[in-house]
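Step 1: inspect the first sequence and its tokens.
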Amino acid sequence: MDVDKHAEELASTLGVDKQEAKEDLESLLQYSVPLEEAKQSVRRKHSDGDGSETDAQPESLPLDEITTGLNNVTVTVRVLTVGTRRIQYQGDEQTIREGRLGDGTGTISYTAWQDFGFEAGDSLVVGNAGVREWEGEPELNLGASTSVAMADEPVDTDATVGGDSDLIDLSPGDRGRNIEVTVEEVERRTIDGRDGETEILSGVLADDTARLPFTDWDPHDAVETGSSCRIEDVYIREYRGSPSINVSEFSTVTPLSEPVEATDSAPELSLAAAVDSGGLFDVEVVANVLEVRDGSGLIERCPECGRVIQNDQCRSHGAVDGEDDLRIKAILDDGTETVTAIIGTELTEEIYGGGVEAAKEAARDAMDKAVVADAIREELVGDSYRVRGSLSIDEYGANLTVEAFEPADDDPAARATAVLAGVRQ
């Protein structure tokens, strides 16, 4: 961005010193204020108050009319959620406030680059806000030139005020959320973070609606296996295609005296509905095995990274002495969609009827490793199974990492009727 060029334009138009215009412009741009909004702010600062158009009070826009093509907007809104997070911006640490605002026409996310002091439930008039695209949608950007004042009257909105949420309702991009959960799994580990070695907690949280993975970037003592707690101010990111809960230094964790009931089941969906969701941490499907793909059966993995190797070559570590393992890559189809199921060592051993040593012996006897995959094909292909696991979607397709795999006990005719009914709709 050529700041000098824009500063020279402003200086010429406003009749001020170019260096002063440049310093004013740079002070706004460092807070991620959009360029046009920053220039407008400099114009207002140096205007002579002659009643020109820039001095007029702008009209509030309804949220459903805000698009990424707008700038310098004014809105009258209700604060729905407020979250706090520390981010890296242009090489520096920056503490931001973020969440959602609502009015009678809809909701919109926001990022505030300074603390304006508002809380969830407040009704505000926000002036001179920028608009940028975030997660494919318009988002209000509240910077140094933004004005925030309490509205004269409460703003009506159909949206829920406050961040209390069930796990099933969380989506990537949610911020300032509050949850009450049971800690099902947790481990403490050290990672190579932005500031060197960093200790974190990670695991699985659950309530009576769903189970989701979490990371606690500032380990809280109350987060321990089997505990129930209320966690306020979490934000949600996407991890392997599903929502992942992030607990930060700004989150508060309060132990609960009564345990939170945790679901022991996963939502059962058709494959089409599961794929359309964009990814799910825990889902159950009923489908037929159409094919056991190449790369199934007896395989070798890199001892360094665990990747499957070919001809003693790892893509990351070159020539290695591979370690024998078992897995299955199966194509599942329920009449609505197909996915690739990735079945790990223990479940593969159960399906095959033996472990790695038994598979190696069978391969030696036949002088062909393919006999292991052939035996698995004969066992699986054409039959219907109830499969539970984590669904991720990327540019290569949909993959279901399997945690439970058993023969389906439902009526195939009834399932086919249900599939056909869905197609007709």
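Step 2: inspect the second sequence and its tokens, then contrast the two.
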Amino acid sequence: MREAVHGDRSTDRNRPDLGTAPVSSTMFDTALRVGLVAVLVYACARIVLPFAFILMWSAILAVMLYPLHLYLATYLGERWSALLIGLIGVAVMLVPMVIVVTSLATSLYSLISSVQSHDVSLPPPPLWLDGTPLVGKKLAEIWTLVATNLPAALTQYGHLLSGPLAWLASFAGGLAIGELSFVLSFAIAAVLIAYGKGGAEFARRLLTRVTGNTARAIQLVTLTAATIRGVGLGVVGVALIQALLLGVGFLGVGLQAAGPLTLIALLLGIMQVPLILLSLPVVGYVFATEATQTAAIFLIWNVVVGLSDNILRPLMLGRRLDVPMPVILLGVIGGVIVDGLLGLFVGPVLLAVSYVLLLEWLQQHPVDGHHRSDEPIL
């Protein structure tokens, strides 16, 4: 009996114990785990990085449109509501894209045709230009050559235009890519909207791990969503609506540069620059070239559009936005430099969210640790 027990024990010693805890991690094990995680993050970043701005803009759109989704979902259901929002968003972006591209193509074709047919003419240089120190005489000479013999001027100085023309072609290509990115972003946003509850829960869990506090994580998610809607709707949304309304007016009076003027109006609107700085010279041009009645209607339309932000902003901005305008301006400029047209929208929203979260982290307001699980985060 003792030998049997002894034999069983010896057998147990030779058998690997799968239930015991592993030996405490060594420095090598820790470094190995950190290295594997770093490699995994790097590999994922390489895949996601080309689509980073599109994904960020899609997430911003999803947060902005989620309240509309909740309203429509009561009548259509979760999936049909998200599908409807996605289809309408894609259609709304395709129509301005076609209008802007058509306007730009028409303007460029008209300019090229005028140059080829020698219809482009300049008045003689002013007398004061010749007397300007250092560069006056040379500028007057070039001006006279362009005004009297455009082909000869292009032959002599055409190489100087290669840089600006290359920049213009690059800008046009970036504009087209940006417009297509908008269409793709709305399609991705529709998918994110359909899984909005899961996305909000993922953000809450992630911030809980980062902050170590569930209540603060919920507070940060709510603050982020409110800031995105504040900047996205109260700044970018209002600017987009005003720019589209101005574009309708530009097309209505038959301006060939309606597309570029609409883009300039959008840029000025996001930077919170009064649109009268753009519309006033255009109104003066319309009064000089069109009938008085048409010009008067165009003037009234521009005044109405310019004052519409007093109505649109309170409607679209549910809370007071405590983001300084220099932060918005820096986001606009930096976003355009980094990612072109798409960065024009992503930049100010992303920088505003970062600014608000930074202030919240610095202030560290005490929050109640109890939160009902059935309360909506967004």
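Step 3: confirm your contrast with the notes below.
Residues 79 and 194 are 6 Å apart (CA to CA). Residues 52-194 form one domain.
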